[in-house]
Amino acid sequence: MSVRLGQVVDALGGELHGAGRDTEIARIAPLDSAGPDALSFLNNPRYQSQLATSQAACVIVAPALREAALARGACIVTPDPYVYFARVTQLWARLHGRGAAPGVHPSAVVHESAQVHPTASVGPLCVVERGAVIGAHTRLASRVTVGADCAIGERCILHPGVVIGADGFGFANEGGVWIKIEQLGAVRIGDDVEIGANTCIDRGALGDTVIEDGVKLDNLIQIAHNVHIGKNTAMAGCSAVAGSTTIGAHCTIAGAASIVGHLQLADNVHVSTNTVVTHSISRPGHYTGVFPMDENAQWEKNAATLRQLYRLRERIKALERKNQDGPAATQQ
Amino acid sequence: MSVRLGQVVDALGGELHGAGRDTEIARIAPLDSAGPDALSFLNNPRYQSQLATSQAACVIVAPALREAALARGACIVTPDPYVYFARVTQLWARLHGRGAAPGVHPSAVVHESAQVHPTASVGPLCVVERGAVIGAHTRLASRVTVGADCAIGERCILHPGVVIGADGFGFANEGGVWIKIEQLGAVRIGDDVEIGANTCIDRGALGDTVIEDGVKLDNLIQIAHNVHIGKNTAMAGCSAVAGSTTIGAHCTIAGAASIVGHLQLADNVHVSTNTVVTHSISRPGHYTGVFPMDENAQWEKNAATLRQLYRLRERIKALERKNQDGPAATQQ
Amino acid sequence: MSVRLGQVVDALGGELHGAGRDTEIARIAPLDSAGPDALSFLNNPRYQSQLATSQAACVIVAPALREAALARGACIVTPDPYVYFARVTQLWARLHGRGAAPGVHPSAVVHESAQVHPTASVGPLCVVERGAVIGAHTRLASRVTVGADCAIGERCILHPGVVIGADGFGFANEGGVWIKIEQLGAVRIGDDVEIGANTCIDRGALGDTVIEDGVKLDNLIQIAHNVHIGKNTAMAGCSAVAGSTTIGAHCTIAGAASIVGHLQLADNVHVSTNTVVTHSISRPGHYTGVFPMDENAQWEKNAATLRQLYRLRERIKALERKNQDGPAATQQ
């Protein structure tokens, strides 16, 4: 099933050059693998060299590249080609009927007191517990659990295996035995939030765990009780946030990063892959703490030295003292 | 729905001062956000400054703080305010009917040969396989799988998405091809164990994987085949234990920590967040191995140096030799 | 239920010595815990000392250990005892009827357009979406989701909670707001692939995510969109691969290792536990990047120094300059 370029610009804007509105597109593809039936895009100027040789039927480009693109063939000119490409994928999905139908799949288990908006889609084998609320146009893919009293906003997507509102991990220790602290809060999720497969967001201990509008969470993420994540923050797969930490808006947390509990992260903080955030961050910026990989033999040497690092510093200090005293001493 | 302070002390003990038994409590809240309808608690003396200004109807305090608390208003005096608070949350949940009803939800798939105690609760869309045993008062929340021949003790809680008794990861390599080692053991879980959402505990290869009484596991934890975890040990989210490792009793393993296979950890070992335990630990204590986070630019400098750390040590050695020889040389 | 040694060698080959074909075996056990009803194996010569004292009815050994084994009692001699042991566990499982019956469990939700081979087994509460293909003799254990248009080969095993074909994590940023890139690709999985509990493999953005024949993935693994994993590569629990990375054949990725996006890893690359792979690897070998664990007090000293590592190098440089100039200076 194909789409005409005219349909694309009618729906999404942009200037079509060098090709007729009836040109048919059978697929969307990256520049280097696009065939003559494909619509492609050039986002990163680094890949400009791929433009001239691309076989794509049409390439989405920024205004600055209009001439270079036209020299090759058809193009759509738009201020932000990557955003335009994103909207093309959405158009594509819509035209190909990939959306979920509204309604509750008969195999889902929805408590009678839960409120599921009629435009929401609750997929196969989902569980929606007592008092939970699912907003308009929100989609629970399949095998999603939304716990008691948790609320999901509008236009959210929850992928398979997501667990919202399991108990937070809270215990008091009495003579070596753990006494459960019942988790009396819930989870509140804003609008336009996407949550990846098998990700878990625990309910709060007393207050609620809060995920604000526009937050995007990848797969297998752990969000502990009473965490608060600000608007439009994105977290990549296998990252984790411990209890009661607040993350600002417009942050990006890379894959497998960990943020310990009871911290405050400002807006616009960017944390690198596998970094462990152990203290609050009050300034926007890019933060990293990744141990560098090496060939194993080389790593073994360095790791052994690393465990003596403090002593190395002491040895340097001693040398520095000697080198200050030394000349004087030899003058005696 | 509110609870009277008299109900609280009747159920849990402690001395009520400065308020009538009929005082009604509408919620439980932390000191700094408690309103005049809330019961609060002061556990950590660090937060004592919050006591004077808290609006709470009543504060749970230790005997040493009785006078300070009374100067503010009502209090319940008890030896361990945090344990008391935990029990209040349990009372709260009980009075508000938050417990799970016994019985097997009609959507669950329970093999006819499985033994589910009549007081146990098997929630929606759970799977209990052939020969599995679920003990008294144990609760499988929703979408939990308990594999063939696995046994869960009494008063356990298994949160949504938990998988008990999937195959351990065992293969022999024959000319580059992996030959499956069928996992013939099972999983045995003691009493009072809690297991967080989407956590996985694999069945043993020959013997069983064993989780002893009182162990608490958070979300998204991986417990490999033939692991043995001792009584009352607690592990936080995203931690992992590789095959055949034994962890003692009363240990705490922080979030995203990893313990490699075939190790022995003594009782009372405490492992910090994101630490990788690569050798056995025979002494109780606190163990850490976290690469410190920094601003990215600073990290890049340090990481580059780190890969040369062994050579730095060599250079220090060379300097030390020179500094021992040097004075002698200049005396010539 | 027991098995006769004659059955074992008839099915798997190997030479039986020192015991009759009718000798009955009630279990398979490691050397050190095997009783007189057990079949055991000696794979690693390191454990040869356990051979003499083992109570096992029969021990599987390599030809070089035939005499040592016979001096103790019965043995089966075979070129690769560990592979033979693996096949014994398979025989054991088969004889004890542990296989899954073909067919779709009535509680599973299989789209009418999905193609499930008649010899495949789709367990309880699985979801197989529109256009998905499940090959011959493949087993979906329970609560597995296979997304639209994804294809699983023959003889695969997908453990409980696996999610194949959730959306990859792709967004364009427009003025701080994330615009979803619909994930238009699928997931293609070869033959003889095993996938552990709660592991997630995302669908591709434009092309497909590809897992080749013989790949083995443990539990709680994240495979992002457009990743390509070569034949017979094995990845241990909690590891993760970010988008568009290609991993070669016959690699091993240890537990909790992370591989960032857009990299190329050659064949026969072995990555240690918790290592973060941040650049492409073109040569086979063993790569490591684990921060060493220490007692917490010692770690604190070293970690503090680590953040000054770059300055330490500067101080060494300064000392080296001084020590070159120094002797000359004192000669003046």
UniProtKB/TrEMBL annotation, chains A, B, C:
All copies of domain UDP-3-O-[3-hydroxymyristoyl] glucosamine N-acyltransferase non-repeat region, residue ranges: 22-91
Keywords: Acyltransferase, Lipid A biosynthesis, Lipid biosynthesis, Lipid metabolism, Repeat, Transferase
Molecular function as annotated in GO: N-acyltransferase activity; UDP-3-O-[(3R)-3-hydroxyacyl]-glucosamine N-acyltransferase activity
Annotated CDD domains: LbH_LpxD (cd03352)
Residues annotated as the enzyme's active site: H225 (proton acceptor)
Pfam families recorded: Hexapep, Hexapep_2, LpxD
UniProt pathway annotation: Bacterial outer membrane biogenesis; LPS lipid A biosynthesis
Catalytic activity field: a UDP-3-O-[(3R)-3-hydroxyacyl]-alpha-D-glucosamine + a (3R)-hydroxyacyl-[ACP] = a UDP-2-N,3-O-bis[(3R)-3-hydroxyacyl]-alpha-D-glucosamine + holo-[ACP] + H(+)
Any Gene Ontology biological process: lipid A biosynthetic process
Catalytic EC class: transferase
Gene Ontology CC entries for this record: membrane
Entry EC number(s): 2.3.1.191
Self-association and partners: Homotrimer.
Function: Catalyzes the N-acylation of UDP-3-O-acylglucosamine using 3-hydroxyacyl-ACP as the acyl donor. Is involved in the biosynthesis of lipid A, a phosphorylated glycolipid that anchors the lipopolysaccharide to the outer membrane of the cell.
Family: Belongs to the transferase hexapeptide repeat family. LpxD subfamily.
Protein name as annotated: UDP-3-O-acylglucosamine N-acyltransferase
Gene it is expressed from: lpxD
